[in-house]
């Protein structure tokens, strides 16, 4: 009877069952009537929802299920559904790179195995259940990204899907404002490893400062390490740029074999994501030929170090999906490397959820910008102003630094249009809430307005 599950009345497809989820800023019960009007076959709501609908004209054939808590009901149903299928479960977490790593893993493995993966950023207590409810008998593998904003959250997610293989990309400062310290971030991320069974496999970053602490948790498990700097089971050597098209490196694996790899993503940090995915594939016995083919045919994700042509040879690196101190530093290094002798313009927004050390981390990014000899710096937001001030204190000339408020993106785009020249490379980077990609939209509209075809 039910064709699909929805938690968003805006995307209802006729035949869907609508879960009225209650969030911090919304209540799905407010959209029940809209869901019915759009063709929902029924709704799952909190106790008393039937009374709310008494004065509304609702088709008697519609399904109305009353539960104590709609989120718990969604999770319980997803767990029940998951338990019906015997899949091998690959779970990915980390401070940076987990979405890209998850996508590369799925891309490589899908060449050989039918699989289900979390789409987009469906990495939380709602997104993972919605993913699991899509399972069918054809799926042999499940690849799931797990995010967290606090201690205990990954443990709760592993209750929905128990990992057979766990990947930790790195331990960084993302969400440090919510967890208080990197040690707490380590504890939160390592919850994934603690949920592995005896036969479980762990994939860990050998170059991460927390490697030995993390590996101690899985000392009785099968462990594969990946890295660039330190001797690892899966390594990248001889890394070099292929213009602005991607990277080349030599992939060396534990059994002494190596393979020359072309990887169409930019940035050294993405090599780590590729290595983590290659380590997963190697651990599962995937042939080196398929690993190479999967890496070389992978396409950049939207808003993740996405290179596009603007006009007059100007190129834009859109890395505006999210931002943390480590990811911004990596993005700036990539801009410096890819831009080479061309002018390089960094447009940086606030890095959020950094807590008491927010000012310090923004100051550090300002220093990094000056150190890398970025030609122009344009910042957005309160944290952006700290980046700008810090860069000038480090020696960037006043006339090369510009600051705007979060709501001044149109003015920023107009200013940028007056500054850019042929051959410039422009980086867009900021936390998700800053919506830095809007600057690109404004820039394109302003250019079209000034250059009608």
- Ranges where pLDDT stays below 50 over 5 or more residues in a row are none
| Overall geometric form | globular
Return the structural class.
Answer: alpha/beta
Largest sheet geometry = 9 strands, mixed
> Order of strands across the widest beta sheet?
6-7-5-8-9-10-11-12-13
Got a strand count? 19
Number of helices: 16
Mean pLDDT: 94
β-strand percent reads 15-25%
The end-to-end span amounts to: 51 Å
Rg over C-alpha atoms, rounded to the nearest angstrom: 24 Å
Question: In percent, how helical is the residue content?
Answer: 25-40%
What features would you highlight for this structure?
alpha/beta; nine-stranded mixed sheet; six-stranded mixed sheet; 453 residues; globular
Summarize the structure.
The chain is of the alpha/beta class and 453 residues long. The protein has helices spanning 32-37, 49-52, 70-83, 98-109, 127-132, 153-160, 176-179, 182-194, 211-217, 268-283, 288-296, 325-339, 358-371, 381-393, 409-419, 437-450, and strands at 4-6, 16-19, 42-46, 63-67, 88-93, 115-117, 141-145, 165-168, 201-205, 222-227, 234-242, 246-253, 258-263, 306-309, 315-318, 344-349, 376-380, 401-404, 425-429. 37% of the residues lie in helices and 21% in strands.
């Amino acid at each position: 009877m039910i064709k699909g599950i929805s938690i968003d009345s805006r995307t209802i497809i006729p035949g869907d069952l609508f879960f009225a989820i209650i969030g911090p800023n919304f209540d799905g019960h407010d959209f029940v009537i809209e869901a019915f009007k759009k063709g929902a076959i029924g709704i799952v709501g909190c106790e008393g929802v039937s009374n709310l609908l008494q004065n509304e004209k609702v088709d008697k054939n519609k399904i109305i299920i009353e539960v104590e808590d709609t989120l718990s009901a969604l999770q319980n149903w997803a767990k029940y559904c998951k338990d019906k299928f015997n899949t091998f479960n690959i779970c990915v977490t980390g401070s940076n790179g987990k979405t890209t790593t998850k996508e590369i893993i799925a891309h490589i493995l899908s060449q050989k195995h039918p699989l289900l993966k979390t789409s987009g950023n469906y990495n939380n207590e709602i997104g993972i259940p919605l993913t699991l409810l899509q399972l069918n008998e054809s799926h042999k593998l499940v690849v799931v990204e797990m995010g967290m904003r606090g201690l205990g959250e990954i443990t709760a997610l592993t209750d929905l899907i128990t990992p057979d293989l766990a990947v930790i990309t790195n331990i960084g400062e993302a969400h440090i404002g919510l967890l208080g310290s990197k040690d707490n971030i380590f504890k939160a991320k390592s919850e994934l490893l603690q949920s592995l069974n005896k036969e479980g496999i762990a994939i860990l970053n050998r170059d991460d400062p927390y490697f030995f602490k993390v590996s101690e948790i899985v000392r009785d498990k099968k462990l594969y390490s990946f890295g660039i700097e330190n001797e690892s089971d899966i390594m990248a050597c001889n890394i070099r740029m292929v213009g602005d098209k991607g990277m080349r490196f030599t992939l060396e694996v534990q059994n002494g074999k190596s393979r020359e790899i072309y990887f169409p993503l930019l940035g050294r940090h993405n090599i780590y994501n590729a290595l983590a995915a290659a380590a997963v594939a190697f651990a599962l016995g995937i042939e080196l030929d398929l690993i190479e083919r999967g890496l070389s045919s992978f396409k950049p994700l939207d808003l993740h170090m996405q290179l596009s042509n603007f006009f007059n040879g100007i190129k834009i690196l859109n890395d505006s999906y999210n931002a943390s101190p480590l990811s911004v530093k990596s993005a700036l290094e990539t801009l410096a490397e890819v831009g080479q002798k061309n002018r390089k313009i960094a447009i940086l927004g606030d890095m959020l959820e950094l807590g008491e050390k927010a000012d310090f981390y923004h100051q550090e990014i300002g220093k990094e910008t000056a150190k890398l000899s970025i030609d122009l710096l344009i910042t957005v937001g309160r944290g952006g102003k700290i980046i700008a001030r810090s860069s000038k204190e480090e020696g960037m000339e006043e006339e090369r630094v510009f600051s705007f408020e979060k709501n001044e993106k149109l003015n920023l785009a107009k200013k940028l249009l007056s500054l850019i020249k042929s051959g410039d490379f422009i980086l867009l980077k900021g936390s998700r809430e800053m919506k830095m990609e809007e600057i690109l939209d404004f820039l394109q509209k302003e250019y079209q307005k000034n250059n009608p075809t």
